[in-house]
Amino acid sequence: MTSSYPIGIAGQPWTTEHKTQWHKAQILHRSYQQQVVEPLLALSEQFCIEQYGELSYQQNYPLYVAFSKNWHSDKPAILVTGGVHGYETSGIHGALAFLQHHASRYEDNFNIVVFPCLSPWGYETINRWNPAALDPNRSFYPQSPAPEAAQFLQTLANKQWQFVMHIDLHETTDTDNSEFRPALAARDGKENHNWNIPDGFYLVGHSEKPQPQFQHAIIAAVAKVTHIAPADENHCLIGVPLEQFGVINYDAGKLGLCMGATNAPYVTTTEVYPDSATATPENCIAGQVAAICGGLDYLLTLQQ
What are the UniProt keywords, alphabetically (predicted)? Predict the structure, then answer.
C-alpha cells in the first residue's frame, strides 16, 4: 500500500526547508507540565525526582527521572522508560501509574529508576518525531543527533547505574499508517508501504538477548487486563515473524532503539493498541503497568 504526503517531492528526501515546513505545521494539543510534570513532582516524598536535562524548542522542556530514595548497591536495579515517542500516551501515564500505585511493593527487592517522558515536545504535539523530524527511538547511540536520546544516555553514563531489567513503554496506533509511516517515506524519499496494525498488545524483544521465558511471563500478566494481538495471516506482527505468541524480536542495538541502551539482560518494548474497539485510556495504562509488574514478578521468581 502506498500513499502520498503533502510535504516534499515524491522520490526525493526532504530538504531543510521541507523539515521546517513540517515543524511549523505542528500544533500543541496538551500540557506536559500539567499532565506529566506536576503528577511526577507530587511523588517527591516517595522518590528522588531529579531534573536531568532540558530540551529547548519553542519553549523549554525540563526532563525528569525518578528513582528509589532508599538505594542499596546490593539490590538489582530496574529501568522503566516512557514517552520515547511522545504521542504514545499510555507509556507515559503507565510509567506514572506504576510509580504512584505499584513501585513501593517492589522496593524491598529492587532499586527502581523511571524516566516517564523522554520526548515532551512529542507529547504536547502528539508526534513520533522531535522538531528536527528525527525519530528518537532510532537514535540511542553515541553522539546521537536527537537530544532526547543524547541527554538520556549521558545521564545513564553519569549515574553509572547498572540494570537487570529495562522495559520501554510504547504503543502501535492506527496513526502509524495514516500519518507516521507516510511521513517517514516522504522524509526519506522512498515509497511508503504500510503494515498491518496488530489488534492488541504485543512485545518486541531484543534479538541478541531474547529471554523468551521473561517475555512469556509479561504476556501472561498483560493478558489478564487486555487482549494480546494475534499474528496475521503470514504469522507475523508488523511484518516480523512471531517468536512466540504476542512476541517479536528486533536487533535493538543495530536499530538504535531505547531498549538497547543498557547492558540489562532482561529487556523488552511494550506495544499497546489504543485504537482497539475495546480499548479505553485506563485499560491501556493498565496494560503498561501489568507489563512492568509482570517482568518484575518474573525476576522475583529468579531470586527465590
Answer: Hydrolase, Metal-binding, Zinc
